[in-house]
Amino acid sequence: MITIREFQDDLKNELEKLFKNFRLTGSDGKPAKFSIYKNDTPMLMANDEDALAPYIVIRLDSGKHREETDRGVQDIKVLILICIFNDDENYVGTDDVLITIQRVIEEFTVNPTFNKYYRIGDVDWTVGDTETFPYFFGGVELTFAVPSYTREDDYC
Q1: β-pair partners for 132
Q2: Which stretch of 92-106, 116-130, 139-153 has the lowest confidence by average pLDDT?
């Protein structure tokens, strides 16, 4: 049996591996890798907000427990939220967001299983509008089947 929290930890580790060597421009203008957070970004003082980008937030949106014949399964909808800093006035930050989205889609389409989990259903994605310059946002919505509790009585 896997807990929801363990699944989120494992997904974080999977994304850290996927983006290990992926570099973007940080909000300080230097090359930076993604910081990956669960649920939300850390609380920061107002003048520290720039220190976060680029980042990914793994948010568990919702879930549904199903009982199959020999095991329980939870379908967990995950939102992978992306924030990128790019102060190029040609708005190429959107390109960075699209490249990041594509990497996530490819990873979980070509390899829909990792650990004890498998991706099910469609993959949805979105890109935020450009009125947040020099920050650019996007997201990917995935659903994973996660092993769960199984009923243990004589009537299953």
Answers
A1: none
A2: 139-153
